[in-house]
Amino acid sequence: MLRLVNELSRLPSVGEKTAVRLAYHLVTKGRDRVEMLAEALCQAAENIKLCSECYALSESEVCEVCSDNSRDRAIICVVEKPSDVIAIERGGYFSGLYHVLHGLWSPMRGVRPEDTKIIQLVSRITRLASSGVSVREVILATATTVEGDATALYLAEMLADKGVAISRIAQGLPQGGELEYSDDVTLSYALEGRRTIG
User: Domain 2-47 in CATH: superfamily?
Assistant: First the structure.
């Protein structure tokens, strides 16, 4: 049981208490349930790979989004990780393509641009243009952190000569958020990103 708890606690966002609860649940639900989970995990590890176009997770060479001809190929939303694609897709309001960076530029942590998929994004835009698809907008949807902002600025500079509109996702107060509990940076972004009503 201790080995199972140790392995489960290595998962992201799983602390020791949660690992103990998960381990207890697994061992008390019977062997069939555990074998089904183990089979699903092995199958996922074997079959899921990175999409050759956008680097999201996919069971095929090209993911469902990239192979969907109804998507707007002129708009690319750049995100940090595959789970960001899932979050945006869940909303159902974005109809363009994605590009997953698999990390953010962070000199302080030793993460260089070439350690991410930034160069592949620039190449992809060039490749699309040569095939007759003109990318008109790149939406930078990186986190509102120092690394996310630095990556967004770096990407904006890299794409400056590509004739593509560069935009950044809106930042500010969440729906139902109270001004008095918001930090200065959030309030600053909320004021800068204000829109006209009516």
Answer: RecR Domain 1 (1.10.8.420)
